Amino acid sequence: MRTQLARRRRSALVGLLVTAVVVLTGCGSDERPVRVGGPGVEASVGDMELRNIRLDNPPEGIYPIGSAALLGVAMVNEGTEDEQLIGVTGPDFTGVVVDENPASSDPAITIPAGETVFTDGPDGPVLVLAEIDETLRTAEYLSITFTFDRAGEVTVKAPVSAPLRLTLDRWLRQQAGGD
């Protein structure tokens, strides 16, 4: 009985790992990478849809005060006119760095009509929140306001992502009856 249970757990773990490898590998060269480790939050304002909003997993599981965090978001323009992201602000960071330019609150990113811009893909802009003024750990949230030229603004609580390894460890502990 106990051996059977151990085999099932191992099979489930192997299945999970194989699925993770397949998801991370992708099916084609023109596809966007899929992020594993928990989805971010979603929001919408006007013709703009924001999907999978989250802060990248921090080194050592923590963003100390004064550090910077990679902001991931898929910005989908469902309108018929180009849109511009004109602001990324929040009470707990000083500004945003876009593609290594100096920190400001004005990212000036164009989202073409009918298209999606990924801030963490190989072809999209890179957004980094500068000088976070509170300690953030995995699964905590940071309030972020996105402001668009036409659509307006929306505020979300963006979660701090957990690395895949921590997610697997947590799942294994739950399967073993711990945690």
Under the CATH scheme, the architecture of one domain is: Sandwich
Please tally the β strands and state the result.
12
Average pLDDT: 78
* End-to-end separation: 23 Å
Beta-strand content estimate = 35-45%
CATH superfamily of one domain: PCu(A)C copper chaperone
**Helix/strand/pairing class, anyone?**
alpha+beta
Counting DSSP H or I runs of 4 or more residues, the number of helices is 2
* Uncertain residue segments: 4-38
Question: H/E element string?
Answer: HEEEEEEEEEEEEH
CATH class of one domain: Mainly Beta
Biggest β-sheet, characterized? 6 strands, antiparallel
Q: Report the radius of gyration as a whole number of Å.
A: 19 Å
What does the overall shape look like?
Answer: globular
List the helices and strands and how they pair.
Layout: H1 2-25, E1 41-45, E2 48-55, E3 62-63, E4 69-77, E5 83-89, E6 95-98, E7 109-111, E8 116-118, E9 127-130, E10 136-137, E11 141-148, E12 152-159, H2 164-175
Antiparallel strand pairs: 1-2, 2-4, 3-10, 4-8, 4-9, 5-7, 5-11, 6-9, 11-12
Structural summary, described in words:
- By secondary structure, the chain is of the alpha+beta class.
- It has a domain at 38-162: PCu(A)C copper chaperone (Immunoglobulin-like), CATH 2.60.40.1890.
- It contains two helices and twelve strands, in the order αββββββββββββα.
- The protein has helices at 2-25, 164-175, and strands at 41-45, 48-55, 62-63, 69-77, 83-89, 95-98, 109-111, 116-118, 127-130, 136-137, 141-148, 152-159.
- The strands form three sheets. Strands 1, 2, 4, 6, 8 and 9 form a six-stranded antiparallel β-sheet that branches. A four-stranded antiparallel β-sheet has the order 7-5-11-12, with no helix packed on it. A two-stranded antiparallel sheet has the order 3-10.
- A hairpin with a 3-residue loop joins β11 (141-148) and β12.
- Mean pLDDT is 78; it is low at 4-38.
